[in-house]
Design goal:
The complex is a heterodimer of chains A (about 350) and B (about 180). Chain A has helices at about 10-20, 35-45, 55-70, 80-85, 85-95, 120-125, 145-160, 170-175, 215-235, 255-270, 290-295, 310-320, 340-350; strands at about 5-10, 25, 50-55, 75-80, 100-105, 135-140, 165-170, 175-180, 240-245, 250-255, 275-280, 285, 300-305, 330. Chain A has about 350 residues and is an alpha/beta fold. In chain A, the strands form three sheets. Chain A has a seven-stranded mixed sheet with strand order 3-2-4-5-7-6-12, sandwiched between helices. In chain A, helix 1 (about 10-20) packs parallel to helix 7 (about 145-160) and helix 10 crosses helix 13. The model of chain A has no long low-confidence stretch (mean pLDDT about 95). Chain B is built from six helices and six strands; from the N terminus they run βαβββαββαααα. In chain B, strands 2-3-1-4-5-6 form a six-stranded mixed sheet, sandwiched between helices. Chain B is of the alpha/beta class and about 180 residues long. The model of chain B has no long low-confidence stretch (mean pLDDT about 95). In chain B, helix 1 crosses helix 5. Chain B has one domain: Pyruvate-ferredoxin Oxidoreductase, domain 3. Classes of the chains: A alpha/beta (about 350), B alpha/beta (about 180).
Chain lengths: ~350, ~180
């Protein structure tokens, strides 16, 4: 058995990125994500890899563009206001088909907000916070071990589909400690060569990496290629978890930290004889519409619980499509639902 | 079996470290654990606290409505958390700094002169380990030895190995102060 270590979510993501072969990391400090940057600052130079504390978030995401263009695994991380600043760069990464990993340890918003846990950046992450017809793959870890696993997956998916991938965590997951078994480190030299990368054109035609094409027909074709890629991702990469769904009358739909709190509420509800289940999207984009619709076909109620005003709720309602009732319980501004507060909503809706 | 504890006090009393050491010891003892800090502005002067959950099954919520145990190192923390403790739970009260009794009759309150014990050992900074020792005796969740090993490792890893004997005595001092 691999060594179990007690790590913060922020540290687990950082260390998993290193073990996934991340060669270049660029970021600007912000709470509640700071330990991620600190772990990279301590360890990347020691391994002969690149750590740069950039002068701004905009600079950091642009450095990611450069490193990704050169064909290496690269990552940046921040928290909500900092991620807003990176949106232009993320749009360029998507437009240029550049594999990259972006971590958002979400805090209360809008504006400067606060430093407490929140899920208020779901729209920004899943619907395209930058301009243009693009998507990122968005992964929503629920525990610290899963944050590490999904970081490994994020790098693999980014390379496989040549796309930016976001890990959408939150302040609770970033700050809490939990036992983790980290994956074995991979040798970055063992990764498949990226034939498209700008690595110096000696002996071959130059590779050109661009997100623009001034000819309307050409740009249309570029967009069609992007959409074809997104169809492929939708077909192959949807991930979710179901708990106690089979005999449930009411299913809680929740992701990330909120889902693990909901699991405790589920156990309390079951102890009271209420038939409650949990549906947890792991990929927030692509969203598991079909799987949730199948659940909605045999339950009375799908209760969405989020640390937002109801952002994932929109996707839940699209999926459920009037097959079941779709009440909502949310907390905002850095307030975290507790098992009991979720249980109270379950009791109301299970009647 | 799942057991939770909230450790609360002034920023600087070492409550976050006490929780980390308990979580580490719990993990070393084979349990599933979570440690969740309060990391808001209250860290700068007001009350700091952390929640530790120890379980023999994967931990759902790291946030707890009704902790099974509460360790309070200052009076504001008692005011804030007393009402939340589960019926039949435990409250470890720092009697050196808290001049009132626990109002509830449905919990077991242990009044431990935590600062006095620490000062008698020669260093007020070990209040967190005195408090943790008292909790271990009252709650019986993780063996004292496992906590001592986790404490020694935490201090050695941060270059403070010379403080291990003092903190060892502090854990013993707290443990012995609860009957």
């Amino acid at each position: 058995m691999a060594l179990r270590q007690l790590l913060r979510g922020n540290e687990a993501i950082a260390e998993a990125a290193i073990r996934a072969g991340c060669m270049c990391y660029f970021a600007y400090p912000i709470t509640p994500q700071a330990e991620l940057l600190e772990h990279m600052a301590r360890n990347m130079p020691r391994l002969g890899r690149t750590f740069i504390q950039a002068e701004s978030e905009v600079a950091a995401i642009s450095m990611v563009y450069g490193a990704a263009s050169a064909g290496v695994r690269t990552m940046t991380s921040s928290s909500s206001p900092g991620i807003s600043l990176k949106q232009e760069g993320i749009s360029y990464l998507a437009g240029s088909n550049l594999p990259s990993v972006i971590v958002n340890v979400v805090r209360g918003g809008p504006g400067l907000g606060n430093i407490a846990p929140s899920q208020c950046d779901y729209f920004q992450a899943t619907k395209g916070g930058g301009h243009g017809d693009y998507h990122m793959i968005v992964l929503g870890p629920s525990t610290v071990p899963e944050a590490a696993q999904l970081t490994t997956l994020a790098f693999d998916l980014a390379d496989l589909y040549r796309t930016p991938v976001m890990i959408l965590a939150d302040g609770l997951l970033g700050q809490m400690l939990e036992p983790v078994e980290l994956p074995e480190p991979i040798d970055p030299a063992s990764l498949p060569r990226k034939e498209w990368a700008a690595t110096g054109a000696a002996g071959r035609d130059p590779n050109i990496i661009l997100s623009f094409d001034l000819g309307p027909d050409n740009l249309k074709r570029m967009n069609e290629a992007l959409q074809a890629k997104y169809r492929e991702i939708r077909k192959r990469e949807i991930r979710y978890e179901e708990s106690d769904v089979a005999d449930a009358d009411l299913v809680i739909a929740a992701y990330g930290s909120t889902a693990r709190i909901a699991k405790s509420a589920l156990q309390m509800a079951r102890a009271e004889g209420l038939k409650v289940g949990l549906f947890r999207p792991i990929t927030l984009w692509p969203f598991p519409y079909d799987a949730l619709r199948a659940v909605a076909d045999h339950v009375d109620t799908v209760l969405t619980v989020e640390m937002s005003a109801g952002q994932m709720w929109e996707d839940v309602r699209l999926a459920v499509a009037e097959r079941a009732k779709t009440p909502f319980y949310g907390e905002m501004g850095g307030v975290v639902p507790t098992p009991r507060s979720i249980l109270n909503e379950v009791r109301k809706d299970a009647r | 079996m799942e057991r939770s504890v909230i450790i609360a006090g002034f920023g600087g009393q070492g409550v976050l470290l006490a929780g980390k050491i308990l979580a580490q010891a719990g993990m070393d003892h084979g349990l599933e654990v979570t440690w969740l800090p309060s990391y808001g502005p209250e860290m700068r002067g007001g009350t700091a606290n952390c929640t530790v959950v120890l379980s023999d099954a994967p931990v759902g919520s790291p946030i707890v409505d009704e902790p099974d145990a509460l360790i309070v190192l200052n009076r504001p923390s008692l005011e804030k958390f007393e009402a939340t403790v589960a019926k039949g739970g435990i409250i470890i009260v720092n009697a050196s700094l808290i001049d009132r009794k626990v109002g509830r009759k449905d919990v077991a309150a242990h009044y431990v002169p935590i600062n006095d014990i620490a000062l008698k050992l020669g260093d007020a900074r070990v209040v967190n380990m005195v408090a943790l020792g008292a909790y271990l005796r009252a709650a019986d969740t993780v063996p004292l030895d496992a906590v001592k090993r986790a404490m020694a490792k935490a201090l050695e890893d941060s270059g403070k190995g010379k403080f291990v004997p003092m903190n060892d005595k502090a854990l013993d001092g707290g443990y012995g102060a609860v009957s």
